[in-house]
Amino acid sequence: MHIVRTVKDLRALQSGLKAQGRTSALVPTMGALHAGHLALVAAAKGHADAVIATIFVNPTQFAAHEDLGTYPRQEAADLEALDAAGVDAVFAPSVDEIYGPDDATRIVMAGPAAGLEAAFRPHFFGGVATVVSRLLLAAGCEAAVFGEKDYQQLLVIKRMVADLKIPTAIHGAPTVREDDGLALSSRNAYLSAEERATAPALNQALRACAAAVRGGLEPDVAEAQAVETLQSAGFAPDYLAVRDADTLGPLTAMDRGRVLAAATLGRTRLIDNIAL
Ligand code: AMP
């Protein structure tokens, strides 16, 4: 497995792949890898001949009060896991390599980047779109894979890539969960034992809300019930919303619905979503 730290070396690596007639798929991550990330690697293998993973904790998607400083970093273990998963190359740049000292360019988005997460993390999608555009342009892969775990982010990236005409096909991959339904997340490491026992209530609330709407309950009534359930379980919910899966606007049809939620448990903010 090749490990590259600079855009220059990444481009040289991509030129080498192209010279061999090999396509590649990119799997961007912030490290602290778990089975969800490795499922993206497995999916990427289905889209190209070679897989390039990236490890970069992107400062521009964290607000000053968020967990940039304490975000789990474990590069040696991550490289080992990626090597074992059969990744061909890893791009693990420094912050300065991605954001030079005179850096002055940011992506600003509307559309799927409005509402839900953006109402609580207004800086977030601008930071994500900015770094993902840079990673996609630096890597020059034919495909890239992102998790449905971050469903609104997946729609934002698809929109950004279409708008900027970046020649990389964006694929979503299903959420990998613990047996009790909790979506795998690097931030689950922050949970105390007691919080970990409570955490599956988020996925349960999503499923209960979806079942209620499918059963004929008005979405806003089902949402309010689910929010109450979460509060009783000890969460501080930011939102729990039934939306159109493509636009994130109001629900238009049962088979096009998505239920999305974010809620804080102790000091850990968890997000999850399911198809209606
Ligand atoms: P992160 O390292 O958390 O920024 O996530 C990197 C990529 O992994 C994103 O495309 C996420 O959506 C995806 N991802 C994170 N958790 C999961 C999961 N439990 N299942 C599938 N994909 C995931």
Distance between the termini: 40 Å
Radius of gyration: 19 Å
> Which blocks of ≥5 consecutive residues have pLDDT under 50?
none
Helix content: 25-40%
Structure description:
This protein is α/β, with parallel strands linked by helices and 276 residues long. The protein has 10 helices and 9 strands. It has helices at 7-19, 35-45, 75-84, 95-98, 117-120, 124-139, 151-164, 193-198, 201-214, 219-233, and strands at 2-4, 24-29, 50-55, 89-91, 143-147, 169-173, 236-244, 257-265, 268-275. The chain has a 6-stranded parallel β-sheet, with helices on both faces. The longest helix is centred in the middle third of the chain and has 16 residues, at 124-139. The protein is globular. Bound molecules: adenosine monophosphate (AMP). The site of adenosine monophosphate has 17 residues, from helix 2 and strand 5.
Key descriptive features of the protein:
10 helices, alpha/beta, globular, 39% helix, binds adenosine monophosphate, 276 residues, three-stranded antiparallel sheet
Please outline what is shown here.
With 276 residues, the chain is α/β, with parallel strands linked by helices.
Note the topology.
Elements: E1 2-4, H1 7-19, E2 24-29, H2 35-45, E3 50-55, H3 75-84, E4 89-91, H4 95-98, H5 117-120, H6 124-139, E5 143-147, H7 151-164, E6 169-173, H8 193-198, H9 201-214, H10 219-233, E7 236-244, E8 257-265, E9 268-275
Helix pairs in contact: 6-7, 9-10
